Amino acid sequence: MFGIDSDALIKLTKSGAKEIVAATVETVVPSVVERETVAEGREGKFPDAFEIERNIRKGLLKRVKAPKLRETETIIEKLGLKGCEADVF
Questions:
Q1: Residue 81: what pLDDT?
Q2: How far is 2 from 25, CA to CA, in rounded Å?
Q3: pLDDT tens digits for the chain (89 residues)?
Q4: What are residue 83's phi and psi, to 5 degrees?
Q5: In sequence order, which residues have a C-beta less than 8 Å from that of residue 79 and are 6 or more positions away?
Q6: What domain of life does the UniProt record list for this protein's source (predicted)?
Q7: Closest among 51, 4, 49 to 28, alpha carbons compared
Q8: How far is residue 13 CA from its own chain's centroid?
């Protein structure tokens, strides 16, 4: 399983490599990443936002809600991760 953040997802989409990665390993998209890449991307009329949305609907990318685990939250805090980086971790 491979969790992906917004920056990586957008770059993989633009490069055309997303389908190869997603076909090779289960690729999960945290809900906050979906919001940033799809909802906000659609508002900006970015073509990759519509492609990412289609990939989620077709099941190529798996939508997940990141669980909150105490141990993980402690590590995230120590590393100073925020936003999507924290959710992917």
A1: 85
A2: 7
A3: 888 889 999 999 999 999 999 999 999 998 889 999 999 999 999 999 999 999 999 999 999 876 677 887 888 889 998 876 776 66
A4: 55, -135
A5: 89
A6: Archaea
A7: 4
A8: 11
Closest CA to 49 of 41, 61, 59, 57: 41
50 vs 7: CA distance, rounded Å:
16
Contact 45, 38 (CB under 8 A): no
d(CA 41, CA 38): 5
The C-alpha atoms of residue 58 and residue 62 are separated, in whole angstroms, by 9
Place of tokens 């970015």: 46
pTM metric for this prediction: 0.75
